């Protein structure tokens, strides 16, 4: 993957100080964690509050130390229910701006909605970037468009769709193929330097937003589109359906975390069956892409020991007849082999 800074990211350039605040667990710091995983060369340090219960394993720094280490931008690297900025975070953002850094955030609550933050940016000549401010896009039209596209889908939220999509991009580029990650969430946008925060788009414009993000291409390459949510999640199925229709995918990769007890945030909803999930996603995708095929499963086995992880992959593979790999443990070479054999050039 390229380490160049995309032009779209000119207002929030690396290197980054990753703000963890008082994140209560690993998942709460998923934005910072994704940046360290895929753009480690951009991450000079982390800033943690006194009650922070996680780390992304880069040096702890205060604002002055981070600036001295070359940090140009502080990334608000946390996610919370409702995407809110608390009083402590607001004070820390003002301090980062006063230290001479830009600030970028992927939370639903905008930096620009706080006069204290806006004033601090103005007096210091710094930039603010709200990743969840979507561009204006048209309503989707479903017209066939040139190019090849893959979409990752999931049994639930936070099953590794972004990780799988980035791993597919890396594997395909290593083989000399034209392949581009298309980000649809805040962490992916920070990693790619561009994208669309699809969960902040008005419902009527979701499919059009993905058509805009992944327009026709004529170079024989692939757009690899980051999925969101799940068709089986009562809270987020709408955005998942809009993605399926707007992506017009030639291929799907199903992402799943074995052993997860229930849908994220909904203990009264069990996870759906893998076969049921795949069939539902293929059926929905056929509205705009009648020839869509499934080419693999990406399993998040981070909570399993190596033997159990290998067994989970074998079981999924036997069930669906598709290659199943953990992108972090195993890579995605066999999934890419299946993709290239299943979709005509």
Automatic annotation (TrEMBL):
Which parts form a coiled-coil structure per UniProt?
none
Q: Where is the signal peptide?
A: none
Taxonomically, the superkingdom here is: Bacteria
Segments forming domain D-glutamate N-acetyltransferase-like N-terminal: 56-134
Organism expressing this protein natively: Luteimonas colneyensis
Where's the D-glutamate N-acetyltransferase-like C-terminal domain? 141-336
Q: Which Gene3D superfamilies does the entry link to?
A: NAD(P)-binding Rossmann-like Domain, P-loop containing nucleotide triphosphate hydrolases
Q: Write down what this protein is called.
A: DUF1611 domain-containing protein
Q: Which InterPro entries match?
A: DgcN-like, DgcN-like_C, DgcN-like_N, P-loop_NTPase
């Amino acid at each position: 993957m390229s380490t160049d800074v995309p032009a779209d990211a000119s207002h929030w350039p690396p290197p980054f100080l990753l703000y963890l605040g008082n994140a209560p667990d690993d998942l709460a710091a998923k934005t910072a964690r994704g940046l360290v995983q895929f753009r480690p060369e951009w991450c000079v340090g982390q800033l943690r509050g006194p009650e922070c219960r996680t780390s992304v394993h880069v040096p702890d720094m205060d604002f002055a130390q981070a600036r001295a280490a070359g940090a140009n931008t502080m990334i608000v690297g946390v996610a919370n229910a409702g995407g809110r900025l608390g009083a402590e975070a607001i004070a820390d953002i003002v301090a980062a701006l006063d230290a001479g850094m830009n600030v970028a955030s992927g939370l639903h609550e905008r930096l620009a909605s706080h006069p204290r933050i806006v004033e601090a940016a103005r007096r210091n000549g710094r930039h603010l970037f709200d990743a969840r401010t979507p561009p204006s896009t048209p309503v989707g039209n479903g017209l066939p468009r040139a190019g090849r596209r893959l979409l990752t889908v999931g049994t639930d939220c936070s099953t590794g769709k972004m990780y799988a999509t980035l791993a597919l991009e890396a594997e395909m580029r290593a083989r000399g193929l034209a392949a581009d990650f298309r980000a649809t969430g805040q962490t992916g946008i920070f990693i790619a330097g561009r994208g669309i925060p699809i969960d902040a788009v008005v419902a009527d414009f979701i499919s059009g937003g993905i058509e805009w993000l992944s327009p026709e291409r004529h170079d024989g390459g692939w757009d690899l589109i980051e999925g969101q949510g799940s068709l089986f999640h009562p809270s987020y199925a709408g955005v998942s359906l809009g993605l399926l229709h707007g992506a017009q995918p030639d291929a799907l990769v199903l992402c799943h975390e074995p052993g997860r007890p229930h849908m994220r945030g909904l203990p009264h909803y069990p996870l759906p069956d893998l076969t049921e999930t795949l069939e539902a996603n293929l059926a929905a995708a056929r509205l705009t892409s009648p020839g869509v095929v499934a080419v693999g499963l990406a399993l998040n086995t981070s909570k399993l020991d190596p033997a159990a992880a290998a067994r989970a992959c074998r079981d999924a593979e036997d069930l669906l007849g598709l290659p199943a790999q953990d992108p972090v443990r195993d890579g995605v070479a066999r999934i890419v082999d299946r993709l290239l054999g299943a979709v005509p050039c």
